[in-house]
From TrEMBL:
It comes from Ephemerocybe angulata. This is Reverse transcriptase zinc-binding domain-containing protein. InterPro entries: RNaseH_sf. GO terms for molecular function: nucleic acid binding. It comes from the Eukaryota.
């Protein structure tokens, strides 16, 4: 079968094909575009020219692409007639593209765009991103370019000013790199970007310039052109690194996978909580990314959050066939255990005391948490505490919420498994109090030690960030700065959390 296919390809190749002849007319085209740049007087650092560059895809290496669902796509380029740009026409139409992403507390963000001939004039073309696309500024900009191309006669040159240098680079200097990796490292929707580039490549007989701007519709789901003759799909094997291939495969595997119902419920809980807290409802992707936030230092806590989001923590309702069926029920409440029950409801595992202390601590930092803390609050703890861009405050919130949820979970496992849920061993108030202080003090100690640049080099924590995280919640406050500047303490430092007195022995480093 493959042999047959190969023969079929070889028969298309005909006489012209010469293996190894990778540079077909590319130099000629390059000099054409160089001339345009000069003729138009484009400034080299702020204005870029869109070049079809399809000739460079005629290489042998492009025959080997993965995820290429249009088998003969690369072959099309061989026959493609690339028009020589018209060097005589020096006129262009100047257009400005503006985009806006509006975030809502209880609904998904919405992105829209407007195109105008002058920044102070009304928009000549405007529209909203269809809901099938991710509502990002980059996608809005890409759709605006598509609409612009539709609205201008093909005989005219276009000069587009964009708000984002990133999109300009993506369509010019970095285009080949992104196309060769099937857009794997980018946050745009792959099919959509491929389609936009295909339309840009259509012979307009003129050149299109894009520049980064220096100053600040109807729902249509059928705009994605997946059959354009200039469509380049699939990743070029020859240019991929191992990690890129890994990412592409993961991405491909995730496509078409439907979110499980329990995961969906937990995602919605987290979205609702984050929306109410920050005034902006996050997307699924932002939530997933937040579960592996850099502020959550321990991998096992990230994994715990990830599993909680998927509702696969090994507790009662997930493991009904566990060899110890008695463990499925809460020893006190006799209900089937769920993450919600363990982390926010059960009266006998210390969660109530632990969250009360957490709320008091966060309040000292100006973060007001509702009582009781909900599963949504815990699941969205990797996102900011509020809309404010205060890195230290957001970091403390993430640390406190993630560490304490993990503490409650691990202590509950000990009680149910090791202590067999015995009544005497349930978590008493004083024990919850001690556990809380020990955990928060050890986090503080960890943070101080991790700022040691001599020892941890590039991996060392940023001292300013650690200072901003803990300032206002430790006592005596004046001890924080010298401890940070030395990344160590020469003796005993007394830290007091929420009016509770505790001695902390800091380990002497270096
Ligand atoms: Zn219970």
């Amino acid at each position: 079968m493959r042999h047959k296919k190969a023969e079929e390809y070889l028969s298309i190749l005909g006489d012209k094909w010469t293996p190894g002849n990778d540079q077909v007319d590319l130099d000629a085209l390059e000099s054409d575009f160089k001339l345009i740049r000069e003729t138009w007087g484009l400034s080299a650092d702020s204005e870029s020219l869109f070049e079809p560059r399809v000739l460079s895809y005629r290489t042998l290496a492009n025959g080997f692409r993965i995820l290429n669902h249009r088998v003969a796509a690369w072959w099309d380029f061989w026959h493609l007639d690339i028009p020589r740009p018209n060097l005589q026409n020096r006129q262009w139409k100047q257009l400005y593209i503006e985009t806006r992403v509006v975030r809502h507390p209880h609904a998904a963000p919405t992105a829209s765009f407007g195109v105008t001939r002058h920044p102070e004039l009304h928009h000549t073309v405007q529209g909203r991103l269809p809901t099938i696309l991710r509502q990002t500024q980059h996608n809005a900009m890409a759709l605006a370019i598509l609409r612009t191309l539709d609205s201008v006669p093909e005989t005219e040159n276009i000069k587009i000013s964009l708000e984002s240098q990133h999109i300009v680079d993506l369509l010019t200097s970095k285009l080949e790199r992104y196309e060769n990796s099937n857009w794997v490292d980018h946050d745009c929707d792959t099919t959509f970007m491929q389609s936009l580039v295909s339309v840009l490549r259509r012979p307009r007989a003129k050149a299109n310039a894009v520049q980064a701007q220096t100053h600040p519709p109807p729902e249509d789901e059928h705009f994605i052109d997946t059959n354009g003759s200039h469509l380049i799909v699939g990743a070029q094997l020859a240019s991929l690194s191992q990690s890129q291939i890994y990412k592409i495969l993961l991405h491909e595997k995730a496509r078409g996978t439907k979110t499980r119902a329990p995961t969906r419920t937990h995602l919605d809980l987290a979205k609702e909580a984050a929306g109410a807290r920050t005034g902006s409802r996050p997307t699924d992707e932002e939530l997933w990314r937040s579960t592996c936030s850099r502020q959550i230092a321990h991998k096992k806590i990230r994994a715990f959050l990830w599993r909680t989001m998927h509702d696969t923590l090994p507790c009662g309702h997930v493991w009904p066939n566990d060899p110890h069926p008695e463990r499925a029920l809460c020893p006190t409440c006799a209900v089937r255990e769920t993450p919600d029950h363990i982390l926010t409801e059960c009266p006998d595992n210390g969660q109530k005391e632990i969250w009360k202390l957490a709320r008091d601590l966060l309040a000292q930092k100006g973060i007001e948490m509702a009582d009781p803390i909900t599963l949504g609050d815990i699941l969205s703890c990797g996102l900011p505490s509020s809309g404010a861009a205060d890195a230290g405050k957001n970091r403390l919130f993430t640390i406190v919420m993630s560490e304490l949820a993990w503490l409650i979970w691990t202590r509950r496992c000990k009680w149910v498994i090791e202590d067999e849920g015995s009544e005497e061993k349930r978590v008493s108030s004083p024990e919850a109090n001690n556990l809380w202080h020990a955990r928060m003090n050890s986090k503080l100690t960890f943070d101080l030690l991790a700022t040691n640049i001599r020892k941890y080099k590039k991996k060392a924590f940023d001292k300013t960030l650690v200072h901003d995280t803990w300032t206002g919640v430790v006592e005596p406050e004046p001890e924080l700065a010298p401890s940070l500047s030395a990344s160590r303490n020469t003796g005993v430092l007394q830290y007091e959390f929420a009016n509770n007195f505790l001695l902390v022995q800091l380990i002497v480093v270096g």
